[in-house]
Write a structure and sequence with these properties.
Blueprint: E1 5-8, H1 11-21, E2 24-27, E3 31-34, E4 39-47, E5 58-67, E6 69-75, E7 85-95, E8 101-107, E9 112-117, E10 122-132, H2 143-148
Antiparallel strand pairs: 1-10, 2-7, 3-4, 4-5, 5-10, 6-9, 7-8, 8-9
Protein name: DUF2948 family protein
Pfam families: DUF2948
Organism: Chelatococcus sambhunathii
């Protein structure tokens, strides 16, 4: 499969990009905010959701960056521990003062990074070949769902 390269310029594009980074693994040291360049970037090991049935699960090293970032805020993301591993669940956009708003990267355990942006301008790009993953991401059901299953 060819390396992925996506650009997001609106909310619909960002939803597609979010689907491709769901369950990506990110180290805290690989999160970078560059205020002078108005850019936020991260390196991630994304789970490749495009594998065919019967193929082993795989991951790819990828880069994701956002331009026109005016501010970045974190919640429950440990910047003091560069080896902390985060699992990216979704990327969302809350429009305020169109076309601007807040892009939020949601991590498991309640962590989040909120980026105030002038507009959506993001790019996701695979940086190399895929490798076999240890397993597929698993999202346990809540207690009520487990009893019904």
């Amino acid at each position: 499969m060819e390396p992925l390269k996506l650009v997001a310029l609106d909310g619909q594009d960002l939803a597609v990009l979010s689907a491709h980074v769901q369950d990506a693994v990110v180290r805290a040291r690989d999160l970078v905010y560059l205020p002078r360049e108005r850019r936020f970037a991260l390196e991630l090991r994304r789970y490749d959701w495009q594998t065919m049935p019967g193929e082993p699960p795989r991951r790819r090293l990828s880069a994701l960056h956002f331009e026109r970032v005016m501010a970045a805020r974190t919640r429950a993301v440990a910047p003091r521990d560069p080896d902390a591993v985060l699992s990216l669940l979704a990327v969302t956009f809350d429009e305020r003062d169109a076309p601007g708003g807040t892009v939020t990267l949601h991590f498991s355990g309640g962590g989040a990074i909120a980026l105030d942006v002038e507009c959506i301008e993001a790019q996701l790009m695979d940086l190399g070949p895929a490798w076999e993953a240890i397993g597929r991401p698993h999202h346990p059901l809540d207690e009520n769902d487990e009893r019904q299953a």
